[in-house]
Specification:
Protein name: p-loop containing nucleoside triphosphate hydrolase protein
Radius of gyration: 39 Å
Distance between the termini: 106 Å
Keywords: ATP-binding, Hydrolase, Membrane, Nucleotide-binding, Transmembrane, Transmembrane helix, Transport
Organism: Piromyces finnis
Helix content: 55-70%
Strand content: 5-15%
Oligomer: single chain
Structural class: alpha/beta
Number of helices: 45
InterPro entries: AAA+_ATPase, ABC1_TM_dom, ABC1_TM_sf, ABC_transporter-like_ATP-bd, ABC_transporter-like_CS, P-loop_NTPase, Type_1_exporter
Number of strands: 21
Strand order of the largest sheet: 6-7-8-3-9-10
Subcellular location: Membrane
Length: 1287
Amino acid sequence: MGDIIELFMSLVMLVTLRKETGLDDIALKQAIKIGSIPGLDPSLAALFMTKDEFWHEFHIYMLYFGLIGIMAFIATFLMDAFLTITSTRQTTRIRGLTFKSIIKQEIAWHEKTSPGELASRIISDTMLIEDGMGFKLGSVIQSVVTFIGCFILAYISGWKLSLMMSIIIPIIFIIVMIMSIILKIYTKKSQDGYAELGGIAQEAFSQIRTIVSFGTEQKEIDRYVEKLKPTRRYGIIKGHTLGICLGLVFCIIYSSFAIAFIKGTRFIRDNEMSYGNVLNVFMGIMMGAMTLSGVGATLSAFSEAIGAATIIYDIIERKPLINTNTGYIPDEPTQGHIEFQDVHFNYPSRPDVEILKGISFKCLPGQTVALVGASGSGKSTTVQLLERFYNKKSGRILIDGKDIEEYNIKWIRSQIGLVSQEPTLFDASVTKNISINTPDASKEQVEEAAKLANAHDFIMKLSNGYDTSTGERGLQLSGGQKQRICIARALMKNPKILLLDEATSALDNQSEKIVQSALESAASGRTTLVIAHRLSTVKNADLIIVLEKGSIIESGTHDELMALKQYYYNLVKNQEIKVEEEKIKDEIEMENENENENEYSTTDINKSQESNLNEIDRNQNISSRSQSKSLSQNLNSYDDYTMENPIVGRISSNLTLSLNSLSNGTKNQYIIEERREKSYGFKDMPWKKYININKPYWLPNILGFFGSACNGAIQPAFAFIFSSALNTFTKHGDDLIKGGEFWGLMFILLGVCNFIFFYCNLGGFFIAGEHLSYELRRRMYNSMIRQEVGFFDTNDIGDGSEKSSGPNNNTASTGTLTAKLATEASLVIGLNLNIGTIFQQLVTVIGGFCIAFIYGWKLTLILLILVPFLFIGSYVRMQSIKNRSQENRNVFESSSKVACEAIISIKTVAALNLEDYFENLYYQKLDEPTKRLERRAYISAIGTGFSNAIAFFAYMVGYWIGAVFIEKGYMEFNNMFKVVMAIILTAMAVGQSSSIAPEANKAIEAFIHILEIIERKSRINAEDEHGIKKEEDGLNGDLEFKNIFFSYPSRPNVTVLQMGDKQIKIPTGKMCAFVGGSGCGKSTIIGLLPRWYDVTEGSVKVDDVENKEYNIKWLRQQIGIVNQEPCLFNISIKENIKYGKLDATDEEIYEACKKANIHDFIMSLPEKYDTLVGGLGTSQMSGGQKQRIAIARAMIRNPKILLLDEATSALDAESELIVQKALEEASEGRTTITIAHRLSTIKDAAQICVFKDGRIIEMGNHEDLMKQKGEYYNMVLAGDGDVEKKK
């Protein structure tokens, strides 16, 4: 730059001397050589050159500019394209490695973290890492190289002046270091906070039915907001830090220019330097310091990336305490000899509580050993120790005489088939679920396993048979159907050891009987460990072990233990299994079977079959059944007939959100394509809404815009001051020194102003951005949590027009909802700053052109032709980044779904050795769109390269035309330089916008997606103040269900309930029981009462008023619900129980717990009622303990209406008896609907409704239905033969 200015000074001198002397170039050259021109400064004389010499020299410089422009394009293209691609690939790899590490960690580690937290970490932390490795890394390298190059040139031109100016470098370095340290600390705190928020959101969305039922939406919102507040504070601290530090950096750089002018003029006066060299030093140090200061802003991205990487790499590098890859792998399968020798065990999360207190027993090959005892006695713990989920504290567990810890864990798990109490399926087809750990299985083998588990018939009646998707965590199926698929899955491996932990607890009587016999036949020849609360299912075991508080108190066969007449005997008596009457029962059953065979199988089943098929699925081909089918065969199909099981609304489910119901796995590769949401840009931005949301934060926003406007004006002001100051160097003596001092002070003033403006700009917008992000997250979560339950079953988050989840629709899952919450809101943080930066650049452009037009309108007009070219690069980059961010959003959501599913079901994943399967699936979800992302990176890089290169061509054109104008006398050099500097600084501002605009575009797109969620009106709005509210005790509790016809919003084509003209009336204070096979619509009808869903046709009335007429919140307060699978939150036991009544006193909590028979257990824990319950999939309590907490939660409400969906299925015999009694007492004076598979628990109900295929086929009390000898009668015979004998 200094050389070019010297060249121009030669031209100015030539033109001036020509004008003054009238001589031509040759004569002038001669005159200067002999010194015949009076008053000419010798230093200026040395600069003289003729017109031809000038243009020859000038062309060489212009050629350099052209070459630099081309090289800038190539270098920028390569830098942007390849760094973006490598950062994408590396981030994909980091995500994969993180997930791989998470899924290989031991269960105890998972118990300390929440699945949502881990899944959101994989997304948000790696986004920061990607940001720090991509284009920004290239910018920093480029800046550092520029800085070094500039300083080398400066030192060559004048080392003394360069050294003086270099004093700013260590100061800047210290400031930048301090800034980086502060940013790193607070970034880590923010990321930790957001990860915890991800966990809270994941848990809430997963248990939305519980939240809705207890009306605790506000409590959940408060819990979320409480954890959100600190993140806002950390963000504000980061904003202040950035504003102050970067403001100081620019203040110091501008102030340092004063050194160049004050000292430089003295060096010129003393002939130590020429002004060309002073200019070179000045330009070198200026450009070097400017580029280094640009690094400051990018360093914040590095600090954030380092902070995030620290956490992620900790996860990646963490070695699991239980290594699944080492250990002895025998050549032969195990024989199945199991032995426990004095085993002691404490859960890592509760080290003070000893769960197993020195148990010892043997299980010989082929034997069946049953473990019985109260909930929490250590039964399931023994199973978990056999699966090596935990390491024992002391003692030995032997398999085939060898310590279990010597074996390879994967081999051990491959020898074991596990069916646990809470069945876990994955979001895949039924075939995939059954064969998930035997990928080479043939279709015949899958069907054979399904037949063994009595699942084949109901699977064949699903809409796509074995290719039907089961939904997230098997949500599209009922509890019983899920359980049978899990049993089929366990049998697929043909394991030598079978562990059955309450394997039939979710089944109705008839299914249980059939599955029980299937299990018994499956168990033959295998070593089987059975845990059961229904003692009738274990009486044939070779050995029964009775556990009490972690110790074995009795063991022996059924007959031996009955003879002892101690603990086991009492358990049996409590359950009233009259073993001696079993034979009689079997005989009655056989007689009955023969009597009813023809009548039952032909009339009853075939009639309902025809009508169901006609109504539900006219296209389904079902071959007519032969009339000679026996009763037992028809029982197989009893509970799962024709319906694609409609229990999305199953209260029991732990995770309530259906996922992509792709009808088969082969369509997976198209998910990303299908899910592409509409993309948005600047033109779609709803500015009015944006301004309204920002109104409360007007002060930081005004400061930000003030700072932006002033910062925008700084660039043109600098161009003006700099080009004006250059004239000083042409003066002599005192004028030279005074000029240097004046312009030096001007630069110091400019620096101080820049500090103030920069702080206002960055600090103001950063603070406003944090407030905005906080507000949007709060509103977004508020809106999501208040949506109707159907919203969580379906995909649409737009205008409320839900889409059904057909084969080509990827429906929402908790994973994608939490992903949205994490990614969209974090993208919006920078929106204010980006808009401010664009505003700043507009001011720069306007200021620059004003100066340019004032000092040379002709040259400015010519240069304006280049402006559109400056914008072309920015536009290309913006478009490709817009599409890229949409692609990224889809990658996050589909991969996050896989991560959430695997982490939530970590015990099942471990037991089935599915770590590699999920790892591959996760990589597949990440790799699918990588090629498209890479293609976009190339297009984007062309835009960036073009933006960078065009500035050099603008210099060329500006100088060329400027030289012609000066030569022709149209312009003075001083004015020409002001015009060129103003236009070029403006061009640089526009070039910067090529990196800002895509960021702003991403933020705008995220903002619009957030608004879609915030503005979505809930179909069933719990916040609606309208509707009937009765006085206290004003509700009687008369219920009526009439002519109901219902389909789930997620599957509108599948009819779930079709009661026709049937109606159910339940008078005040009476109990009505719903019975029937799994998937017949029992739980669905319970979900209609508290308005989880509204009926399609028909009515649900409470006290002769439709439930839609009531105030929804008030109505739900009158209802207490206990679900089949207890949905508890990862908060303390006390807080869980207070869900039922937010203002409950401690006394009320203790009373409710005593009623639910859980108080004593809670008091035995070290932290008592403050003990954390644990998250989904890693709960630290047994099923029975959780169930009793859930019952206490319902009891504390003292509700008018009580809904019990299999409320005691997870309890042991003793607890069941106590809790059943407590429930009976609790239901006195209340209208109660109970769903039960154990018919003995409901025989005293005032009314029993028998459901089948969504219809009511029988109604009446126990005696009436027994006399009818129909469906109910057969169910009683199949299950509880003793019901009749109970008095």
